[in-house]
Amino acid sequence: MTFLNFFISGISLGSIYAIIALGYTMVYGIAKMLNFAHGDVIMVGAYVCFYAVARYELNPFLGVVIAMIVCTILGMIVERLAYKPLRQAPSLAVLITAIGMSYFLQNTALLLWSSNPKVFPSIVGRGAFKLFDGELSISHITALTIIACLVIMAVLTLFISKTKMGKAMRACSEDKGAAQLMGINVNATISMTFAIGSGLAAVAGALLCSAYPTLMPTTGSLPGIKAFTAAVFGGIGSIPGAFLGGLMLGVIEIFAKAYISSQLSDAVVFGVLIVVLLVKPAGLLGKMTQEKV
Amino acid sequence: MTMRRLINLKRAEARKIYLTYAVVIVAYIVCQVMSSTKFLSSSMRGMLVPICAYMVMAVSLNLVVGILGELSLGHAGFMSVGAFSGVATAILLQGVIPFAPVRLAIAMIVAAIFAAFAGFIIGIPVLRLKGDYLAIVTLAFGEIIKSILNNFYMGIDSQGIQMSMLSDTTRLLPGGKLIIRGPMGISGIQKIATFPAGAILLIIALMIVFNLVNSRSGRAFMAIRDDRIAAESIGLDITKYKMMAFVMSAALAGAAGALFAMNYSTIVANKFDFNTSILILVFVVLGGQGNMLGGIIAAAVLTILPEKLRSFSEYRMLLYAIVLIVMMLATNNAEIKEFLSRLNPFRRKEA
Amino acid sequence: MKAKTKYVPVPSTTILPERDAGRAPVLECVKLGITLGGIKAVEDFNLTVGRTEIVGLIGPNGAGKTTVFNLLTKVYQPTTGTILLNGQDTHGMDTRQVNKAGIARTFQNIRLFRNLSVIDNVKTAMNNEMHYNMLSTILRLPDYRREEVAAHRRALKLLSIFDMQHMADAPAGSLPYGAQRRLEIVRALATNPSLLLLDEPAAGMNPSETADLMDNIRKVHEMFQIAIVLIEHDMSLVMNICEGICVLNFGHVIAKGTPDEIQNNPAVIEAYLGRKKEA
Fold first, then answer.
1. Could you tell me if C98 and C198 lie in one domain?
2. CB A277 to CB B137 under 8 A?
């Protein structure tokens, strides 16, 4: 039973990673850049949600919606100001700019909200479902997180495969030049991708801080790096890959903490990533591209 | 005569190399004079050694990023391997070699060897990967090294060196001394790193990298960077040369780590995290990939800048972030570049 | 004008120039084939190349010519068949080992080391004949200087064959198109191959450049006494310098023979011009 408990908390943590990883993977698939500022968008989302709920006493779900709106706009502004001018620049320059943006968001948060940790109220309270005479306990937030992840995954898959914008996104990720010739507005598509990714980051922020209630300006960085790892794990650029990678990473992390060592859990997670990449160099579900000679 | 020695160099390249050495030496003399005439504030004087260490880190990472063309996001890991092994060596030798500069030199060499070994171990899996995947795996290794050092205990007693992981189970005999103490790192370090030592290390690092770049190995690195398939088609062993660059770079980072650590009384593994790796990458990118002098200058400026911005107190890191973004935009966006060059009164007229 | 080559039959259904008849061929491909993405890109490809023969590999676009080069140089591992290079089976070798065994190539889409100087491109290709170690590199010991100077001289000599010695210090990426193609040939030659594969060496060249290239290829052939296989669409070049021609279409060899035979072969004419409508 403890095993099952660990498994469920692993899936829950993994669901959060998966939601964040979706943002990484979508942006990578289309803009071919590692958006290191993504983790800090999570933090912004969590703060907005925190203030909406704790300060203005709004309904938690309304708080999440507001956070999503703010982060969506933030994501689009960041893309427009910092990344769009570098569309033709070498990828390393874009990477450094993204890192600069990450510092910028963290330090702005530091000025606005100070470095004192805030205690985040869970958006669904601290209750739990008790199963098997209380031996298996699933907190409400755990259940909500898993459900949210499944819903997001389903909606996103439908969006990508069925809608015009979704098809435009796939076209852009295949070949931007050809997409442009087919009349797709590439810039609008990229902007939309950032908007969706950042909106999801806000959801992830609210869920993350509901489960782990300490909120600081640096809250987003480590989950950001982990989720990035999850995206690579599943095959960066692949949406089902991000989902799978996120879940697996969460489970591995919780199991490593429980059964190996809590101090070394990060090392185990990264070790597994390395092993996976050695066996499947493009991640679990990524496609290997062969260079044409 | 000098041209003959650099027979395979274009004149411009040779000039650039000599310029780099000259700038470093002149800067060293100026700093040394200013420091001894109390012209430098004590906080600035305290930064001389870390700046040297960061400069060596920039040179070392430039070998991988600029010359070999692979992105590494875990370079601080090698620095920490060097820091811990170097400091531990210096502490072990405290009684044996009383003369500090020799102890420092030996510590740096040991640090370089340990870091090179770490680079080799990591290189075996890493170098089979490409591009962003290689980058993420270096990041992963950086984090793994940090985690391991955070849980590593080492001490010495009359029976020799004792080690343990996770918790202190070294069971040292009375009179023994615990050197590395897990998350507490190493404390009570004798600060034997000096500015002249840092300058010498930098010159040696430059010499190694320049001589390497202008040799058959260096040409192979750059050929792999420019076109891997063509490099294979002319018989270059890609894995061997990638490994060579990676190990050499790790060794230099290790020596820099030892220098860096012996400027402080305490050193912990968390000091060498992802942010440190990124900081060094920023030096390399801002200084220009493959441009050693550029990386050195960027290292100095970006280490001093946050200090100088102290008067802006809490805004300083924000300003730093803005400076970083604006600099990347200014150097990489065609329109902004064009705009800036129009502002430049010395711009050459188009023919 | 070039001398007419006399041909003698050899067992593997191929013909060799008379001068190569008594010697083992440099290359023998037997039933070579590869499936790429479910399509048989090359199937049942047989070719024997004499020690000093110049062979043309022609065919319409998409016929699989470059794929044959990629198979020979192990950029792709063949699905079926064997490649014997100087009598040695290349099974299990990778690109680098095949190069060491004697095959050098150029690429259809030029693949130079763009940021290296012209001479460094050539010297990089001499890497395997230089032996000074890391210590000599860093301390600039005498063997470093000796080998570097020797390589430098040889690189200049090779460049001078193509009249490129004056641009030795220019970055390779800055050269005009024709010069980049020539540099690729020089770089390939610097690895001391016994078989040189040229992938469309005249692509994008004007007629006078093509004529110069033709002279250069003959010169290289004479100086180094090596075998050359070239893929080319310029028929005047192929018919002029090749002694044997192999025609590919849809991954299959549809004809082999001397230039005269190929020019009058109905299957070749059909592959290039299409079938004549039945009246």
1. yes
2. yes
